Amino acid sequence: MANGARFDDAVKAARSAPNLSVGCHVVLVDGTPVSPPDAVDTLLAIRSAEPDKFYSSLSAFAARAMLGGFDRDQLVAEVTAQIRKIQAAGLQVTHLDTHKHAHIFPEILTALLRAARICGVRAIRNPIVPVKALPARLFKGKRDLWKRYGQVRMLHTFSGPFLQRTRRAGLLTPDGVVGVIETGSVDISLLRQTLASLPEGTWELVCHPGYNDADLRAVRTRLLDSRDEERRLLTSAQLRQFLEEQKISVIGYREFVEKSAKNQP
Asked: How far is CA 124 from CA 98, 114, 115, in A?
């Protein structure tokens, strides 16, 4: 997050792992702009108690995005500013994604595609969980996940247009994402079932590993203990063994782009 409170720390950590794929997690909701506020005024929740911030409510943001309430040039300018801040820190931005998967909305996707081309970014997250990767049996009996399962199924109306527009813009994107429904509820059993159900292709695992410390508890998030659990799970020998058994290769966006470029005619 170019406008994150710990941006400098994140840059330092990324520099210590030069082979790491580093994406720009574009923030247009629940955060503050990199651009001067008066230059992106249509993106801000001006009537709120904090008028220099983006909308904190995803539903309010979605309504405005669907109604075309954001100035398109301002959207592109802000996304570009966020990407360039990371690039100016000496990091290669390998891909783009968005906080709260905001680029599922066509107007936001347009801005990301334009900004990616301006800044030379080659890839973008595909925020759709394909139906083939959504066996309902995984979520039966899990009431906290069933609602999100229904919401994700509804988003498939955006799938076709997303792929068409991304390809026309010359950007690369994986086949989709997994882990969205399971956010905050991942355990080894559920993750194994999710990964074992993957169709052939290249998929992005959405996850939120971390440490449940004082800094995290000071932030407005429901993901607390689950971050510790995901960190332990994702670095476990048990998971590595399972991936080998399933013949699942773990790559980053850097490798994805390089491999895709070699396969293009």
From this structure: 9, 12, 11
> Coil, strand, or helix at residue 62?
helix
Please give the helix or strand (H or E) that residue 25 lies within, else none: strand 22-26
CA-angle at 177, arms to 205 and 244, nearest 5° = 45
Phi, psi of 176 (to 5 degrees): 155, -170
**Which of 65, 97, 72 is closest to 82 using CA atoms?**
97
Q: Which CATH class is domain 1-121?
A: alpha beta
| Domain segments of the chain as ranges | 1-121, 126-265
pLDDT in tens, 219-251: 766 666 778 888 999 999 999 999 999 999 999
What's the angle, vertex CA 98, arms to CA 108 and CA 128, rounded to 5? 85
258 sits in which H/E element: helix 253-263
CA dist 135 to 55, 132, 150, 178, 248, Å? 34, 7, 12, 12, 19
More confident residue, 53 or 209: 53
Amino acid (1-letter code) at residue 58? L
pTM across the whole model: 0.89
Q: Describe the crossing of helices 188-196 and 237-245 by its angle, rounded to 10 degrees.
A: 20
Return the percentage of the chain with pLDDT > 90, whole number. 53
